[in-house]
Input
Amino acid sequence: MDIITSRYAGYCTGVTRAIKTLDTVIKENRAGNNIYTMGPLIHNPKVIESYKRKGAYPLNDINLLKPGDSIVIRSHGVTPQVMDFLKEKKVKTFDATCPFVLKVHKLAKDLSSKGYYIVLIGDKNHPEVIGIKGNINNENYVIVDSVEESAKISPQKKIALLSQTTRTEENFKLISKEIAGKIKDEVLIINTTCKTAELRQNEVAELAGKVDIMIIVGGKNSANTTHLAEISKNIQARTYHIESADDLEREWFKNLKLAGISGGSSTPHEDINEIREIIESF
Ligand code: SF4
Output
């Protein structure tokens, strides 16, 4: 079995930064403070378990924090209200929000202050979207997840269109087209999808067209990994989204010649390499 591994598989810069931040906090925790991350640091259960063993735990309820505890803000970011709460509570806060996400926070804040109605493309329940929403200065916004939802937007004078960073370029373009065609006045379209994610998505689409089977590695709760699997599945029906080597099935590869492997931005390179070795052994 020949295998092509995606050049862009593995941690993105935002995730690498968050991991390094947590590693430093753990290393320098001489006082033995409790260490938490705001929710799972990345959407990868295996990595989260390894950090629990090092004494860093994901936390979902910030009300449980005590003064002196340490918390790392993951690459998805949080709302300004959460940051204020942490400051008030005297929690040691280490902000590893990805700079690309911070850029969307700033745009949401500035444009809503200037009177734009913000249309944010994304998943309402995703932490990144919740963090961006917290920066919008008023109730003049809507979050849309699809072309169908964007078609329901009521006419507005000034619209600014922003996106969750991990949305696909295609999804962004389709929704922008729908909105630009519907609104007659001012429409400001700012493509805030992440270029790293875009390169990865384009490469997966190209790879899926070449191989007999695609393996996408990463947490089932990872939005960007799930998007990659969707892109691949649309081109190559034999696409499998797996979380770890344990999910591989020898049967999938029977009588096939060429396999492709990629992974989301929260998938460690070691996982990709391990899976490659196992497939090679089939
Ligand atoms: S996918 Fe892009 S925006 Fe998201 S954390 Fe990685 S580098 Fe940042």
In short: The radius of gyration is 20 Å. The chain has a mean pLDDT of 93. The pocket of iron/sulfur cluster is lined by residues 12-15, 75, 98, 100-101, 165-166, 194, 196-197, 224, 265 (CB under 6 Å). The longest helix spans residues 13-27.
